[in-house]
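Appendix B. Chain record.
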Amino acid sequence: MMVLNVIYKCKPGKREAFLEAIKVEGIDQASRDEEDNFRYDYFLSADDPDEILLLECWKDEDAQKHHATLPHFIKLGEMKADYVESTELCKYFTE
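Structure tokens predicted for this chain:
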């Protein structure tokens, strides 16, 4: 299994709007509905009001690469321009 921790540093005051836009566009649910997705959840930082953690678990790296080609993933990338200052990725593999 491939696990991705994605840390979004949102523009000041934009965290809630970003999460709402993700829900309105159905990006979170579309990602969860992918066949090889085991987890796709957002968590709010208790220490930083502009930070979000996205935890993703995929069957394997190919499943995540396929995810990156889908319309909802592309839409998320476009939306980040309005809401996100930076994105940090941490990828690891489990058995």
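Further analysis of this model is presented in Appendix C.
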